[in-house]
Write a structure and sequence with these properties.
There is one protein chain. With about 150 residues, this protein is α+β, with helices and mostly antiparallel strands. It folds into two domains: about 1-35; about 35-150, Cyanovirin-N (HIV-inactivating Protein, Cyanovirin-n), CATH 2.30.60. It is about 20% helix and about 40% strand. A four-stranded antiparallel β-sheet has the order 1-2-3-12, with no helix packed on it. Strand 1 and strand 2 form a beta hairpin. The protein starts with a helix and ends with a strand. It comes from Podospora australis. This is Cyanovirin-N domain-containing protein. Pfam families: CVNH (PF08881).
């Protein structure tokens, strides 16, 4: 009788652990894709000029924190100019009309000057990039809304 009870208990506990493991993996994947890049990355800046104007650029740790990778993300894939205010918007192309930079001392935030809809006034606004930009330490990619940046030099 005891071996049958122990076997049933082992099967029951194994099922619980499998379901909990799947739930933890799903929760971690979901959290990764919703934002939180800032906890894994160093030296994050918004490039203000040149071919990569409007790109988020930085150095981010892999999953184990043992190696760092240079990553870049085109913020035109993530942000839009909403009547003069910087805001989230997939393929919003905000960097084409706004002048943005990293907020001094807090590279998690972006500060932008954007023209309003009538293009007769420039508005300054800020946004927390950590809200929707994620970093995947396994693939060494930074992204938003399913758009992945590039790993580079």
């Amino acid at each position: 009788m005891y071996p049958r009870i122990l076997l049933s208990l082992a099967i029951f506990l194994g099922g619980i652990l499998s379901v909990q493991g799947l739930a933890i993996k799903a929760r971690n994947a979901s959290a990764t894709l919703e934002g939180g890049y800032y906890a894994h990355c160093l030296s994050i800046t918004v490039v203000e000029h040149g071919d990569y104007k409007g790109w988020l650029s930085g150095v981010c740790a892999d999953t184990y924190g043992s190696r760092y990778h240079n990553v870049q993300l085109n913020l035109n894939d993530c942000l839009m100019n909403l009547n003069g205010f910087i805001n989230w918007g997939e393929n919003g192309n905000a960097m084409k009309s706004c002048n943005c930079n990293s907020k001094k001392g807090q590279t998690q935030f972006i500060k932008c000057e954007c023209p309003n809809g009538a293009h007769d006034m420039w508005i300054t606004s800020e946004l927390d990039l950590n809200t929707n930009i994620y970093y995947d330490g396994d693939t060494h990619t930074i992204g938003c809304f399913g758009h992945e940046g590039v790993e580079g030099a």
